[in-house]
Amino acid sequence: MPKIPVKVVTFEEIVEWSRTLAERIRESGWQPDVIVAIARGGYIPARLLCDWLGVSDLVSIQVVHWPTAAQMAEKAYVKYPVSVDLSGKKVLVVDDIVDTGDSVELAKKSVEECCKPAEVRTATLQVITPVAKYIPNYYAIEVKEWIWFAYPWNAVEDAVGFVMKIVKETGKTTWCLDELIHAHIEWYGREYIEKRFGYILYAVDLMGKRGLIKLDKCTS
Ligand code: AMP
């Protein structure tokens, strides 16, 4: 088992899950007037839901909770609130995943307080039910064991965060490629390195230019 279990998610899966989510919303008989995307993870799911549900009004709110891959900040906070009048509107707040649930719960409260909506419901592609303190009104996939989902829209950020974590935890800044590959397998599993190898090289190059890591020749 890797130290941090990671599942690499493809854009095809995102389209499929957002379609399932849209079907659940439609089956409930409820149609939103406006979608609020939670930046940044909710952007692509929210845009896809607009398409599946025929919603043309899309605004956003930014909530910060997990600033680096697989590392949670202490408290979720609203960095940029919604600043439009949503009087009388049915609003759907959308994010990629409910982990603790703090981000979605906070975004919902913030929209209710700021913008006079008629009703606010919430939807996410995934919910990690054993850890979630808040369950959204709609979701497509229930996750029964905690995993870091490496979504396709933050592949570089994940790669940088994951390399940084290895550097910090080991205190070692000079690596040969073979060692770095083995460390990735130990920390994040084989699937991650196989599917994201190009991104890891890109991250190492970026970090090398910032003087955070040095890639050396392997001696044996
Ligand atoms: P939370 O407030 O804990 O529900 O999570 C807030 C946000 O952090 C989510 O909308 C994701 O963008 C990101 N996030 C949290 N946990 C995960 C995870 N297990 N996999 C991928 N992204 C996550």
TrEMBL record:
Entry-linked InterPro entries: PRTase-like, PRTase_dom
Alphabetized UniProt keyword annotations: Glycosyltransferase, Transferase
Residues covered by the Phosphoribosyltransferase domain: 18-150
Gene Ontology terms, MF aspect: glycosyltransferase activity
Gene3D superfamilies: 3.40.50.2020
Keyword Transferase set for record: yes
Name this polypeptide is given: Phosphoribosyltransferase
Natural source organism: Pyrobaculum oguniense (strain DSM 13380 / JCM 10595 / TE7)
